[in-house]
Amino acid sequence: MTSVEHMKWWGWGVEGVAFEHSNKPDFAPFVKQAVGLDLRKPAQAHLSFDELTVPASRASEEFIAELSTLVGQGHVTTDDQERVVHTYGKSIRDLLRIRANDLPRTPDLVVYPADEAEVASVVAAAVAADAVIIPFGGGTNIAGSLDPQPTEERVIISLDLGRLDRVLSIDEGSGLATIQAGAQGPSIEEQLGAKGWTMGHFPDSFTHSTLGGWVATRSSGMQSDKYGDIADITKGLRMVRPNGIVAIRPVPSASTGPSVREMIIGSEGRLGIITEVTVQVHRTPAVREVLGYFFPTWEAGLAAMHEIAESDASPSVTRVSNARESGFSLATRKASTGVSAQVTKGLMKVLTARGWDLEQLCLSFIGYEGSASHVRYEKGLVGSIVRKHGGIGVGKGPGALYDQKKFDTPYLRDFLLDRGAAADVSETAAPWSRLQEVYDAANDAANAAYDKLGVHGWIMCHLSHSYHSGACLYFTFAFITGDDPIGEYEQVKSAIQQSFVDHGGTLSHHHAVGVEHSPWMEQDISTEGVAIMRGLFDSADPGSNFNPGKILAD
Amino acid sequence: MTSVEHMKWWGWGVEGVAFEHSNKPDFAPFVKQAVGLDLRKPAQAHLSFDELTVPASRASEEFIAELSTLVGQGHVTTDDQERVVHTYGKSIRDLLRIRANDLPRTPDLVVYPADEAEVASVVAAAVAADAVIIPFGGGTNIAGSLDPQPTEERVIISLDLGRLDRVLSIDEGSGLATIQAGAQGPSIEEQLGAKGWTMGHFPDSFTHSTLGGWVATRSSGMQSDKYGDIADITKGLRMVRPNGIVAIRPVPSASTGPSVREMIIGSEGRLGIITEVTVQVHRTPAVREVLGYFFPTWEAGLAAMHEIAESDASPSVTRVSNARESGFSLATRKASTGVSAQVTKGLMKVLTARGWDLEQLCLSFIGYEGSASHVRYEKGLVGSIVRKHGGIGVGKGPGALYDQKKFDTPYLRDFLLDRGAAADVSETAAPWSRLQEVYDAANDAANAAYDKLGVHGWIMCHLSHSYHSGACLYFTFAFITGDDPIGEYEQVKSAIQQSFVDHGGTLSHHHAVGVEHSPWMEQDISTEGVAIMRGLFDSADPGSNFNPGKILAD
After folding, report:
1. Residue ranges of the FAD-binding PCMH-type domain (chains A, B) (predicted)?
2. Are A257 and B521 within 8 A, CB to CB?
3. Helix (H) or strand (E) holding B222
4. What is the pTM of this model?
5. Total domain count for chain A?
6. Who is most buried in A189, B17, B269, B486, counting CB within 10 A?
7. Residue B398 is part of which domain span?
8. Which one of B176, B259, B510 has the shortest CB-CB distance to A266?
């Protein structure tokens, strides 16, 4: 069988790795006050795979045989666990469904082509047979971009790009790397890093997501302030369609009509199968530092991030958490050693003496990259802006810690689910002048939804990306679920999403549309904007063979 | 009648302004050696307007009356000069045709709506009457984006956006300005500047082009290295379509499927009429400087620009001319005063003593903006890179001069045309690693075309924009025309364009496609890329009412 590795069928990450709080003394009390969950109670055992009801594959023996001829024996499978792994992404809705044995429709077979030519032959065969093709990268999507439509009568193929995992070439003279779409984050950085390069793209899903998935969903990374969002990083690409290959060459900028590159970016498989992407890459910087800062209030932190974005400084990371999220971060620290605990205690005393309300304290991380002297220069520019807004630097320690554990948060979701609480995220971007309004509205919307549900819910926020004219706000929410976890989740999630579009924010800054966000498309990009996009999809895919129902519902 | 002002019907700019060489003693000898043209010979008189054969308008009295009801008496016209002014842009092909009384088809009427509501009513009426709509901004396009199709049997409306010329609002808290599409460059900067802001977009056509035109053609400005191309600057927009308005809200970045914003940018009127754009704007910088540099060779200049693009510096302008263009620039200087002539002579002596071949000298301009200390910091970073590549700084003088006359070049074209020589431009972008190859190929292609024509032709080049992974090369070519000026021009232009796409360059970095560049679309973005774009056009405009034949030929 294929050597492509997958995450747990029931949760995030690899088997054997899980969130652990026994070494984090402040965590249990924090969770108790945040959502009322008592961590001393035992976790619920979840279903074993054998308890799942997996629909039978609808693929005929002939079709399986045909595809096997194209990609080789062993690279086409109807195995139940393979099909379940390829059914959903990793949204809380996906996790709730799989834990509830809710599998109305799965892919009928999973195909692992070895290269672009095999992708092309599978696509041609699938369209000829009027089958549905859903491309699959790392399976990390949380917007429902991978869901097979429950009412789909045709054969559904999950086209797994996992074997297309190589950096094909680096144009060192241009800072461009051509990489196969199925390559995952760590593998890309390892292959590039061996030659002294980095792509600089580190989304939260980095450890398991793929380049093709990033492009197909308009991903952003933690260092996008410097390196750009994936739409900026993507210079060229190749996408397989039934009649041939779209080949966009890696030119730095072009005036060639409406951007086909920008039609493919974010297309979630609806226009074809992305096989190869040429991205801009950078020399590994001489110095890379993430510094921690404290601000006395959220408003002060927000104002500082805005002024940094307007300034001559260009840090790689600008992040500030609100007071609740700062409290959460501090609660997930490991038990401090005597010295570090003393330092923290001392610092808090100083801040209190300065008149800070420690309940309002906001933790910020700002990243710097470049030559030693450039990093020094940028830290100087940023430092004076931070001070102007009443903030103080707290050094490299917190930043290094953030850097180490930045990819661990998804494991916490499974931990909470095991204990009856659902946690998920909603994120948006809006102009600077409307950020506080969006922030207030989202908090109010979540709390109103919690009230309606009669639950003790939690919502926290950080600013995760800064631009000249606005920023991304990233909300995390959690509550103890009742009889209808998905229905309850949808109430909270919908309320937050609606608050975004009602107050000048977009339905998503970097998590894509899928089926979860498609109800807000018309409100976000207007009815006529949707009409243009629908025309694009219908003309490019008249038979609705490519991931139908995503982005725009049928 | 309308107060909207237009350029000369027969050439660039306003009546009464023309290129003048009597105060530029080196110019006539330069032109003599470059293209063999003797400027002592008298200029040819061009046609008077009365000598033109202007096709009659095909618009019915009823249709004119209907449109007059919508936009008011006096804002619909079938006047010959109005229709001629709205027939072409300002490419050399356009100028040759108008001078040759070659007007097979003009718009049948010109309509000047006052606002978006009037644009919407005109669009609805036009589509209901199965008329063709060609939007018109400043009329500066040089790719044939405005040409009525000669075989068009339907009524053609030139929809002039000139009355939509206001900055509607500035969101000072976000650095965003909402501006009407018909506003021209100087008016935009004046309205923004009065409140301390700048858009920072200065294309060569700046004095007469409009925001809507910039967006519809993917324009770039001279300071785009810092401010971004128009695609980066455009955050939100509104576009009128027959059934309603596409409204894209100004969010800094979004993950909402294929980018409708990026479909409209570059659409040249094929998807609808852009009426309003929300752009990012910046506080007028405290310091703005353009410094001149000399490099001993083109290769050295190119290498320096590349290293600057890779460095921690971020200048606003990076420009280097090849030896030929440097010679041209020096030849267009006004007669030097005694002192400045002495200084130049002295400098050249020093360079010769250093071993420079002055025939190879390349002139470069690099721009800096920001706080005084930031400009100082950036100049330091750039200065050491320049020195590393054997270049030297020549101070503010040449930069200030470049800054003053940067918008004057188009007048020179008319001057040469009056004397029997055609001059035009071709520009491309390519990865850094292929720039020298593209440069060599374009020069070879032009010279081969000249040989075939048996003319003494000229081609010169500058690098005009730098990016992390590549740059824009901008070629200017000129020759004395023979019996078939347009045919001869097309031979040279085609040879250069073909060399671009054959060597990894795009067919245009910032001049759009129109009809001049459409033959290379499949070679540039691939057959399947064109198929996707054609599907977009066909689905959005099933009746082919919106500027048909542009970007992709019918």
Report:
1. 103-284
2. yes
3. none
4. 0.97
5. 4
6. B269
7. 287-406
8. B259
